[in-house]
Amino acid sequence: MKTMLQGAFGLALAAILLYWVFHSMDPKALRDDLARASWTMLAAGAAVNLSHNVFRVWRWRWLLDPVRPRVPFRPMFTAVILGYFTTWLIPGRVGELVRPALLSAREDLPLGPCLGTVVADRLLDGTTLVVLLALGSLGASFAPSALGVADGIRATAWVFLGVTVAGLVGLVALSGAGPRAERWLAGRPAVVKWLGHALLGLSRGASALRSPRRLLLIVLYSALAWLTIGLGTWIGVRASGVAVGFSDILVMLLPLAFGVAIPTPGGVGGYHAAMQFGLTRLFGVDPTLAAGAGILMHLAILVPILALGPVLLATEKISWRDMVAAARQVKAMGHAGPAIEAAR
């Protein structure tokens, strides 16, 4: 019932957002803009965007290095792609749970640190996006009417940066307080003990950031991953006929990431609304052209994952039952004591 309600809510939200984007648009003008798009360039943008997952896997490997050095690339890449695949198909962003649990089960890694590395991964994404927005805004060609909106986005971004950095610092600090924290928790009530053990398990996923060498490589791969996404998005948006610069796209990455994070099926509606808002309000692009760019670039992100997901399920001999069991394993961390010990 909960999944059905999440699905219904996601569909309703997607419908509202799509209506907001397309309700005042001339369908013929939109079809004409789509027909003029360069499908060769769009395919190139899709390929470049998909390739960013190589850097994401390398970053994840270094985050896991204190838990187990040199985790093989193949199972990590499979977990990343199938995590996205599940997120696109199932309501509730279940893929965020599938990715760490699947790797934990296949490589016999402790679940708590695996989940913690994904939390650190997301905080690193947020930090990188804000930095790229700040750099991009230096050379972005904002529309004259957008200067106030751009200032608001910058202010929000700096607040977001503060939150993500604080989260990372907190996880790193907690990762170094293991024995002391264990002793402190020993005499505490069960609820406090459970929460403390869960946080300690998650914090182990950020312990790699305590090493300067690992930190440097993790930051490098974070930057390369998002610059690759930016390049793929720039190629795809240019393929739709929108003449924006690469700096403009760097500014767009944070709003687009928020759009994808909206809990709609396959990111439908959220991504389109973010693309429409960014291109029209910030850079003065024609709304119909911006809507076409949202449609095409969303397909460039979605189709490769939906095509690659079933291939990996078949070649890696993973069933949907395995995927659901992996997600349930993570959810079980929120229940009784045995799950906590497993996470530790």
Tell me the overall shape. Answer: globular
Order of helices and strands: HHHHHHHHHHHHHHH
Total domains: 1
Give the overall pLDDT as a whole number. Answer: 85
How far apart the termini lie comes to: 31 Å
The radius of gyration is: 21 Å
Name the helicity range.
Answer: over 70%
Strand proportion: under 5%
Largest sheet: none
- Class by helix and strand content? mainly alpha
Give the number of DSSP strands: 0
Number of helices: 15
Give an overview in words.
This protein is mainly alpha-helical. It has one domain (36-343). The protein is built from 15 helices and no strands. Helix 3 runs antiparallel to helix 10 and helix 12 (270-283) packs antiparallel against helix 13 (287-315). It is globular and about 65 Å long. Residues 334-344 have low confidence and may be disordered.
Write the layout of secondary structure elements.
Layout: H1 2-22, H2 27-35, H3 39-63, H4 73-89, H5 95-107, H6 111-139, H7 147-175, H8 178-186, H9 190-203, H10 212-239, H11 246-261, H12 270-283, H13 287-315, H14 320-331, H15 337-343
Question: Characteristics of this structure?
Answer:
344 residues; 15 helices; mainly alpha; 79% helix
Short note summarizing the structure:
The chain has one domain. 79% of the residues lie in helices and 0% in strands. The protein contains 15 helices and no strands.
